[in-house]
Amino acid sequence: MQRKNSLIAAGILSLAAAATPLTATAQSAAPELQAKLLQLYPKTVFTSVTTTPVSGVYEVVMGKTVSYVDASGRYFFFGNLFDMATRTDMTAPRIAAATKIDVSKLPMRDAIKLVKGNGKRVLHVFSDPDCPACRALEPTLAGLNDVTIYVFPFPLASIHPDAVRKATNIWCSPDRAKAWTDWMLSSKQAAAANCDNPVTRNMELAQQLDINATPTLISSDGRKQAGALGEAALNAFINGATNVAAQ
């Protein structure tokens, strides 16, 4: 049903675009509407209220949520706004900005560091050793050039009950980077081991960052992307793209 509705909406927007193509315009603040919304909904935090290219429709950012509202403040629209003349998703970049993570606060000591080439690009990955999508992503990660990858072992224990043990053994290996790639690429398990490890801390960190799927990728500027990406899309994401699709 959701896909059917999306297709209907896309068709309507396409017809509208054919009649009156939208032209991209710079968004500007709408302080009067923001004041009205604060009065109408005093318990809601409005991060920003700005104009859109659509007359009478305003973009509203509420924390990590991006929606649209009319000038009265009564009618809200939840979903993505598309410029069908240019086939551009205008909402996705705004969601990416609203959900950015402050990577300076990520505890790198709790990640497995993998360096490819000169390592000048940076990628952070929350990954589960028993997650099929994570293991499908691993050959693509292995083929990247000039990137430093920080892997945060993040077992989804509720669906992969053995993943905590595997993640712990990998972390406690003499060469945890090799142990990680040996398992993810070749199914070679690390020897049983126990040591002070960040597995539980990473599970708690993921919850704080609203990460509930693996793999989850985080760029050097804090953009977040869930799911495995192909080589081209992954390189684009690392290089700054805000609208890439998981495989």
What would you say this structure looks like, in words?
The protein has 8 helices and 11 strands. The chain is an alpha+beta fold and 247 residues long. A hairpin with a 5-residue loop joins β1 and β2. The strands form 3 sheets. The chain has a 5-stranded mixed beta sheet with strand order 7-9-8-10-11. It has a 4-stranded antiparallel beta sheet with strand order 1-2-3-4. Strands 5-6 form a two-stranded antiparallel ribbon. It has 2 domains: 2-98, Nuclear Transport Factor 2, Chain: A (Roll), CATH 3.10.450; 103-238, Glutaredoxin (3-Layer(aba) Sandwich).
Q: Quick gist of this model?
A:
This protein is of the alpha+beta class and 247 residues long. It is 34% helix and 19% strand. The chain folds into two domains: 97 residues, Roll (Nuclear Transport Factor 2, Chain: A), CATH 3.10.450.70; 136 residues, Glutaredoxin (3-Layer(aba) Sandwich), CATH 3.40.30.
Write the layout of secondary structure elements.
Blueprint: H1 2-19, H2 31-40, E1 48-51, E2 57-62, E3 65-70, E4 76-77, E5 82-83, E6 88-89, H3 92-98, E7 112-116, E8 121-127, H4 132-142, E9 147-153, H5 163-171, H6 176-186, H7 199-208, E10 216-219, E11 224-226, H8 231-238
Parallel strand pairs: 8-9
Antiparallel strand pairs: 1-2, 2-3, 3-4, 5-6, 7-9, 8-10, 10-11
